[in-house]
Design brief:
With about 140 residues, this protein is mainly β. The protein is built from one helix and twelve strands. The chain has one domain: Substrate Binding Domain Of DNAk, Chain A, domain 1. The longest helix is centred in the first third of the chain and has 4 residues. Keywords: ATP-binding, Nucleotide-binding.
């Protein structure tokens, strides 16, 4: 009995459409704001998105020229919130990046996040120059408020 019912020209959805899990909080990564040197949350998965979710990707640059390693810290919290005001869900590293000294060339790190139907958050980082990748999986069940 999951078939839609037509009433007065409208369609009532089956229960499977109405009962969907959504994120209770935004999820992002720690970024360094160059203007004040503070750490903030750059949201990749917005609050209220249904899951399973599609891949959501954002691009980031490295803090320093010649940097060969980066720590990616997954945060739960509002967009632009200070890192200390967010919940840290996990962290992972992307190591062994080539040392770039050419001022016209820089690493771009693509960070992709996805929530599967079981609430498992997968975060994946990929470097644009070397193609190196690293990932992290976190059991996310709409963590603490």
């Amino acid at each position: 009995m999951n078939e839609p019912v037509i009433i007065e020209g409208g369609v009532l959805p089956p229960l499977s459409i109405i009962t969907r899990d959504v994120t209770a909080h935004a999820i992002g990564v720690t970024v360094l704001k160059e203007s004040d040197g503070e750490l903030y949350n750059a949201v990749i998965l917005k609050k209220g998105i249904p899951f399973p979710s599609h891949d959501n990707t954002d691009r980031f640059k490295l803090a320093e020229r010649g940097q060969t390693d980066v720590v990616i810290e997954i945060l739960q919290g509002p967009p632009g919130a200070r890192r200390d005001d967010c919940l840290v869900l996990g962290k992972f590293e992307l190591n062994g990046l080539s040392k770039v000294t050419d001022p016209n060339r820089e690493h771009e790190i693509l960070i992709t996040m996805q929530l599967n139907k079981d609430g498992i958050l997968t975060a994946r980082a990929r470097d644009s120059i070397d193609g190196l990748e690293a990932d992290l999986q976190v059991e996310y069940t709409n963590k603490a408020t």
